[in-house]
Design brief:
about 220 residues; mainly alpha; 9 helices; about 0% strand
Length: about 220
């Protein structure tokens, strides 16, 4: 099987699963309304969507342009179907490619990132299943004040480990977005909840800094 055939099949099956997931997402609330005869007030639904949908659409579009080049085609479809890209799928794929010493966009990177995302999805499903089964007995432990700081720092821990590796390799390029984001979050702490929107901003700053450094012969 040549690479072109593999890519064609990847896009074919990826589109099928994306559309299937979309149908299933809408099917559950529709079937619930049909079975129980409880339909929402559509005017209220539209008002609610106008308040939140544009934000999610914007973030979703930004994530496609930001994460697909990192994950490649096969792992991108799988990651977007299973979700939780920022917190789990992207760090898992980048870490796996880093450990395997392969680059995103290469055939090896495609295989490694797909395996990493698939493994992450399987492990996540198993953990969620165990969590649901053990939710009641584990609730006192999970709600304890002792573990609260750990749950508050899951995302910084994930990206902190990756940042050390990538910043150490390209510290000249990394300094510009790093300094910008540190100043921005210190000046406007409320933006900490807009990480998905600011990721491409940091990427653009890094690209611009790399271009300037390259022209000056510093890279």
């Amino acid at each position: 099987m040549n690479n072109k055939t593999y890519e064609e099949k990847t896009h074919l099956y990826g589109r099928i699963w994306i559309l299937s997931a979309l149908v299933m997402i809408f099917l559950y609330p529709i079937l619930t309304c049909i079975i129980f005869g409880a339909w929402p007030d559509w005017q209220s639904v539209v008002k609610g969507l106008l308040g939140v949908a544009p934000i999610f659409w914007t973030v979703g579009l930004i994530e496609v342009f930001t994460y697909v080049p990192m994950l490649d085609s096969g792992s991108s479809y799988l990651a977007f179907v299973t979700g939780n890209l920022t917190n789990l799928k992207v760090p898992a794929a980048l870490s796996a490619m880093e450990n395997a010493n392969v680059k995103p966009g290469s055939e090896e990177g495609e295989v490694i990132s797909t395996i990493a995302v698939a493994t992450s999805s399987i492990v996540t499903t198993i953990i969620i299943a165990l969590g649901v089964a053990l939710l009641v007995p584990l609730t006192p432990i999970l709600n304890s004040e002792l573990l609260a700081p750990a749950f508050d720092n899951i995302l910084p821990a994930l990206f902190g480990g990756l940042a050390v590796v990538y910043i150490s390799k390209n510290w000249k390029v990394a300094m510009a977005p790093l300094i910008f984001m540190v100043i921005l979050f210190l000046a406007v702490p409320s933006l900490s909840g807009s990480v998905s929107v600011l990721v491409p901003v940091g990427a653009l700053i890094a690209i611009g800094a790399a271009r300037i450094l390259y022209k000056k012969g510093l890279l």
